Amino acid sequence: MVSSKDRARKLAREKLDRQLARRAARQRRRRQIQAGVGAAAALLLVVGGVAWLGGAFDGDESSTDAADSDVCAWTKQNAETNKSLKDVGEPPTSGIPTSGSRTMTITTDKGAPIVVSLDLANAPCSAADLAHLAGKQFYDNTTCHELTTEGAIRCGDPSGTGQGGPTYSIYNENVPLAPEPTPSASGSPAPSKAPVAPLYPKGTVALIGDPPGANGSQFLIFFKNFTPKGTPQYPIVGMVTGGMETVTAIGKIPTVANDTGDKVKPKEKIAVQSITVGAPSAAEAATPPVVIPSAVAAPSAAPSASRRS
Q: Strands 85-86 and 165-166, how do they pair?
């Protein structure tokens, strides 16, 4: 029979584990913000003591829960120097979900809606960015202005120039890591004969910034597997879970030269009628995971899509 003292120790241990997990989550998000915006603020640690032990068995949680801390940081962009930017405000910096997934639905004139599972665990700020813009109807009645040479549909720019976006940007969160070459017996890298998974598999949805790392509204939907020859630049925000036939069909549209001479402009217009993002679902844990390269897989979900204002 478990004594009251043993049970007390167990409860205290469980509470300590929860507090340490919250601390780790806060520290991880703060490091991301610092890396993204170049901040040098010191990380804060909450140190438990005798007072905490005295309340080990109460039902109160720490007031500095990760949900109350800043999760994201947004960098302002100058709309005076770039007239293609559109001011629709900024997403919040706190209260952003950092686990599970939420559904983004892209409705075009090319077939069934494209359904995307946004990864909240590995790209919470990127997902919050897309959700904010969708809620402001930023994407409604825009076009996908490029079919890139890398095998992706480029969408999300109301100006259709590649220079458009909101008046803020978000840093890279979930860029896949290029595999390191295996050294040979002589010490030089040896070619691998084993098949290597693409860094951006078909169906991957990633943000694209200009310059890289200054992401706004534009995103890529890959209709082919792609692995860059150099350093990966596109932060992955989710995976297509429905309407892949529409993505494939769009990828087959012929291209012509754009204003700069690059043969990436779709020969026929690809109209984006609307983009909506649903709320995170409580039933995500029971659904299969979404596999995202170089990141822990995030559970997928299919919540009902609705605009958020």
A: parallel
Residue with tokens 């039902």: 59
Local structure of residue 81 (DSSP, 8 states): T
Least confidently predicted of 26-40, 69-83, 98-112, 147-161:
26-40
Neighbours of 226 (CB within 10 A): 21
DSSP state, residue 305: P
Give the integer Cα–Cα distance in Å for 198 and 101: 22
Tokens standing for residue 87: 């001011």
Distance from chain centroid for Cα 66 = 18
The number of C-alpha atoms within 13 Å of 182 and in the hemisphere containing its C-beta is 8
Q: Are 77 and 165 in contact (CB under 8 A)?
A: yes
What the block records as the tokens of 24 is 């780790």
Nearest to 130, CA basis, from 138, 122, 140: 138
Cβ(298)–Cβ(120) below 8 Å: yes
Lowest-confidence range among 2-11, 50-59, 272-281? Answer: 50-59
**pLDDT per position as a tens digit, 229-252:** 999 999 999 999 999 999 999 999
Mean pLDDT, range 183-191, rounded to an integer: 61
Strand 236-242 relative to strand 204-207, pairing: antiparallel
Alpha-carbon span 206 to 176, nearest angstrom: 11
Both tokens of 42, joined, read 């010191």
Residue 93 is given by DSSP the state: S
Q: Rounded to an integer, what distance in angstroms lies between the CA atom of residue 219 and that of residue 111? A: 19
